[in-house]
Amino acid sequence: MRNLILFFTRNYYILLFLSLESLAVFLVIQGNHFQRSRFLNSSNVISGNIYELYSGITDYFGLKYENQKLASENVMLRNQLRESFSTELKSPIVITDSLHKKQYIYISAKVVNNSINKRKNYLTLNVGSKQGVKSEMGVISSDGIVGIVRDVSENFSSVMSVLHEIVRIPIIIKKFGEKSVLKWDGADEWHAKIEPIPSHLEIAKGDTLVTSSNSSFFPEGIMVGTIDRFEKVAGNTFYDVTIKLSTNFNRLTYVTVVNNLMKEEQTKLEKTSQHD
Amino acid sequence: MINEIIKNSIRFFFLVLLQVLILNHIQLSGYLNPFLYVLFILMLPFQTPDWLVLILAFVLGISIDMFSDTGGLHAASTVLMAFIRQPVLKLLAPREGYDIIQQPTVQQFGIGWFFSYAGILVVVHHFVLFYLETFGFSEFFSTFFRIILSSFFTLTLIFISQFFYSNPKKQ
């Protein structure tokens, strides 16, 4: 026993170093898993509030750009109003719609912190569990997909951006309906890769990619990006495709969180089928 | 003594906020990320006990991690850097040893000494940080390139910061 105490007092410095170092490495490894929510993240009270205060100041610098974007979105929405269409039918028809059930609810949010220069990039939003945000909801902007919610606190949520090495998003090439999966290769914030496409498809630069119905995070048909370049690999049977993301991650300010009301039902059903 | 504690606490908060609010948003061509916050560990007075340096390094790293959602990445690299600070200081010690009232600054030990001291510690810190981030050596050379460029950037900022230290002896 005395020897043990002597051992600890003599080597306390090394032991302290080893325990702190292994605690830190443990936190890194634990953070590599998708499902586990972490103890320390940017949605907690201290960092969330500091980021919100800071973005309150820096928002003024992006106002011009945001105004242009809102104006163009207003024009687009106005074009879809019923008033912009003339109707031949004068008597109103009342439709009680029992055929369509609401599947998606959208929650508007502001980005209070955003990173693009790491291998695992995150955004912090100023909405949290109080506003109905839950883990694993999709996040989109007016330009395209943004990411997936990971951790949620009362008033903030931390979102794994598409620019995160473990994020995989099912997509389709709009022209062919060909399925593939988007993943970011860590190169830069403008480009990403998709899983190889069979080379018999005549893809071209500029082909549109949208989210597929396989994804339970996003509604079908949300813009993802366009094909930027492609080259043949693996014995000429596949194309290695690089795409240009439609979202500008440098200037994200306002985003929308997508709540899929039928997600739980879908995943539950899929789980029970998989047990057989 | 009390004066030192206050001065270092202010430096701690200042560097953490500078790092997470401004420097984390700087990126040039995706390769250059300066991590100026390690200056706090470099500037700790000589009489700081070893165990305290380790604990302060852990707290510093975990604060940066909390803001940048990196788990324990910065904590791991800062703790290792703090651990080798003592051996590096011993290695570079002048013949007559360190005076307890001296501080590890350019003004008191000269450019050459400071460059070796800060250079070794910053490169070790960045080395652990970037390889732990990619979690392996799969992209060895591109990561290595990032380490060199970022270390250079961080060291430049550290040297600029040295101009803000006045030398109490000369005044």
Describe the structure.
The complex is a heterodimer of chains A (276) and B (171). Chain A has 276 residues and is of the alpha+beta class. Chain A has five helices and twelve strands. Helices cover 27% and strands 31% of the residues of chain A. A six-stranded antiparallel β-barrel of chain A has the order 1-2-5-4-3-12. Residues 87-92 of chain A have low confidence and may be disordered. The model of chain B has no long low-confidence stretch (mean pLDDT 84). Chain B contains six helices and no strands.
Overview features:
heterodimer; A: 276 residues; alpha+beta; Thrombin, subunit H; six-stranded antiparallel barrel; 5 helices; B: 171 residues; mainly alpha; 6 helices
- Which fold name corresponds to the CATH topology of the domain at 168-247 in chain A? Thrombin, subunit H
- Widest sheet: strand ordering of chain A: 1-2-5-4-3-12
Level of helix content of chain B?
55-70%
Q: Spell the H/E element sequence of chain B.
A: HHHHHH
Helix content of chain A: 25-40%
Topology:
The complex is a heterodimer of chains A (276) and B (171).
Chain A: H1 2-10, H2 12-31, H3 45-58, H4 63-80, E1 104-114, E2 120-125, E3 138-140, E4 145-152, E5 157-164, E6 168-173, E7 178-183, E8 191-198, E9 208-211, E10 223-233, E11 238-245, E12 254-260, H5 263-275
Antiparallel strand pairs in A: 1-2, 1-12, 2-5, 3-4, 3-12, 4-5, 6-7, 6-9, 7-8, 8-11, 9-10, 10-11
Chain B: H1 2-21, H2 39-43, H3 50-68, H4 73-92, H5 106-134, H6 140-162
Helix pairs in contact in B: 1-3, 3-4, 4-5, 5-6
